[in-house]
Amino acid sequence: MARYPTNGLTLDQASAIITAARAKGRELNLQPLTVVVLDAGGQVKAMQREDGSSLLRPEIALGKAYGALALGFGGRELARRAQSMQGFMNALSDIAGGKAVPVPGGVLACDANGVILGAVGISGDLSAQDEVCAVAGIQAVGLKPDTGDAE
Predict the structure, then answer these.
(1) Per its UniProt record, what Gene3D superfamilies does this chain match (predicted)?
(2) What is the DSSP letter of 82?
(3) Which residues pair with 136 in a beta bridge?
(4) pTM to 2 decimals?
(5) Mean pLDDT for the chain?
(6) Residue 151: pLDDT over 80
(7) Where are the domains of the chain?
(8) Hey, what CATH topology would domain 11-146 get?
(9) Given phi > 0 = left and psi -120 to 50 = alpha, else beta, which region is 29?
(10) In 3-151, alpha helices (H)
């Protein structure tokens, strides 16, 4: 039997995260969501854009996940740092080619030991609501979400 590296999250986990995150969005009657799941190497593992989701939602969702993964902090911490360290965050955005979006809705997916396995970014509704859906998706596969706030 061949074994392949997963680079963190498996495709099955990424798909299940998206399904659960979207279900949470429908439960809360949110605007159409776009969900992006990145593996530990920062590569897109899976993405879904709900019907009616506006034009740049995939890029915004990717930026939320990418920013969190790039610095190892959930979106809430990135947002705080964007306020207090504007020069650094501007440089980060430049270095990342504009792909880092420092707002809630980018959530790290960690194992029980706190090892980062990937990140989820969601865009479509208010950032705090996007984050609720990301957390639900990550928890649905038995992983620990890191939003950037202390537990």
Answers:
(1) Haem-degrading domain
(2) H
(3) none
(4) 0.93
(5) 93
(6) no
(7) 11-146
(8) Beta-Lactamase (3.30.450)
(9) left
(10) 11-27, 57-71, 75-84, 86-95, 127-140
